[in-house]
């Protein structure tokens, strides 16, 4: 019996040494999952570069719709503004026509023979920019500004205004500018006095200039020759019909008083108000007909 057990034990050892063993369990890697956040790629959009155009000619002014359109204004009408450059009294003016977000017009100096063609754009937030070109078509000045709703004291403006900075493109000098609307008319830029039957606007502007120069220098006979007789003249607190040149000259000093001459110094002999009955200088102190003759005088 003991021999049999020993024989079995030896047989087991022999089998093991010959490699008859159980196959090992194959290795399976274990994945440990953690709460890794999902990453959304961030896309940075680079806007298409808009080329910066240096405005040199009027044709380069192209306006974009930025949400401020001219429906707020009297579209197609001539809007007449007068104001101050560098805080001086009524020394500049603007005649502007609004169409969509584009502004066309003329900018002028009241007492200087300087007028510039204007083209500009209405911008977002009640802002605007105006480019001004000289007679040769070169950029002479730029106005950047806005349409205020209130005065500096907080009062509501009763008429439209433009507040901004006027930049002289030749010197790079910047000065303040304020403009306020006087009136709007249905005429055109090239023919502002057509309502009064005028064929040549320059004739009226020249007549107004002559009247101001001759009355300021007491060239009485020349002034008398500008009158359309008979004429109704308001002076000395009463209305008087003057029938002819001799009668006008006899009343000249009573009409052209020192106060009246001082008032005439403030007159701007261009871009004047016109209606069917004539063209008005100042606030109606002088009226011209379509031929450039004086048809009404009001002295105080």
List keywords for this structure.
6 helices, 14 strands, alpha+beta, 6-stranded mixed β-sheet, elongated, single chain, 300 residues, disordered N terminus
Describe the structure.
The chain has helices spanning 2-17, 201-216, 220-225, 245-250, 252-255, 258-264, and strands spanning 78-85, 92-99, 102-109, 115-123, 127-133, 139-146, 161-168, 174-185, 227-235, 238-242, 273-275, 278-281, 286-288, 294-298. The relative contact order is 0.10. The strands form 2 sheets. Strands 1-2-3-4-5-6-7-8 form an 8-stranded antiparallel beta barrel. A 6-stranded mixed sheet has the order 10-9-14-13-12-11. The N and C termini lie far apart (159 Å). The longest helix has 16 residues, at 2-17. The chain is built from 6 helices and 14 strands. The model is unreliable at 1-51 (pLDDT under 50). It is α+β, with helices and mostly antiparallel strands and 300 residues long.
Amount of helix: 10-25%
Distance between the termini: 159 Å
The tally of strands reads: 14
Give the topology string: H per helix, E per strand.
HEEEEEEEEHHEEHHHEEEE
> Rough shape?
elongated
Cα-based radius of gyration, to the nearest Å: 43 Å
Number of helices in the DSSP assignment: 6
Largest sheet: 8 strands, antiparallel, barrel
- Let me know the average pLDDT: 83
Strand percentage lies at: 25-35%
Q: How would you write the strand order of the largest sheet?
A: 1-2-3-4-5-6-7-8
Which structural category fits the helices and strands? alpha+beta
Please mark out the parts with pLDDT under 50 across 5 or more consecutive residues, or reply none. Answer: 1-51
């Amino acid at each position: 019996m003991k021999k049999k057990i020993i024989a079995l034990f030896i047989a087991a050892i022999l089998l093991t040494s010959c490699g008859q063993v159980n196959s090992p369990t194959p290795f399976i890697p274990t994945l440990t999952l953690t709460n890794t956040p999902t990453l959304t790629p961030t896309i940075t959009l680079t806007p298409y570069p808009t080329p910066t155009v240096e405005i040199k000619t009027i044709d380069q002014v192209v306006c974009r719709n930025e949400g401020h359109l001219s429906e707020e204004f009297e579209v197609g009408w001539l809007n007449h503004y007068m104001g101050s450059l560098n805080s001086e009294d009524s020394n500049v003016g603007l005649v502007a026509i609004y169409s969509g977000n584009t502004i066309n017009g003329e900018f002028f100096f009241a007492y200087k023979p300087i007028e510039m063609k204007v083209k500009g754009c209405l911008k977002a937030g009640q802002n605007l920019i105006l480019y001004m070109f000289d007679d040769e078509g070169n950029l002479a000045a730029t106005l950047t500004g806005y349409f205020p709703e209130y005065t500096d004291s907080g009062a509501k403006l009763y008429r439209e205004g433009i507040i901004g900075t006027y930049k002289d493109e030749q010197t790079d000098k910047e000065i303040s500018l304020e403009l306020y609307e006087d009136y709007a008319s249905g005429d055109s830029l090239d023919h502002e006095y057509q309502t009064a039957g005028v064929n040549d606007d320059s004739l009226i502007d020249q007549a107004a200039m002559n009247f101001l120069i001759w009355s300021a220098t007491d060239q009485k006979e020349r002034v008398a020759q500008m009158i359309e007789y008979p004429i109704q003249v308001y002076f000395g607190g009463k209305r008087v019909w003057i029938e002819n040149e001799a009668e006008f000259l006899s009343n000249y000093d009573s009409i052209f008083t020192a106060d009246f001459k001082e008032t005439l110094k403030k007159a701007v002999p261009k871009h004047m108000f016109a209606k069917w009955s004539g063209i008005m200088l100042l606030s109606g102190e002088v009226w011209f007909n379509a031929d450039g003759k004086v048809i009404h005088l009001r002295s105080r």
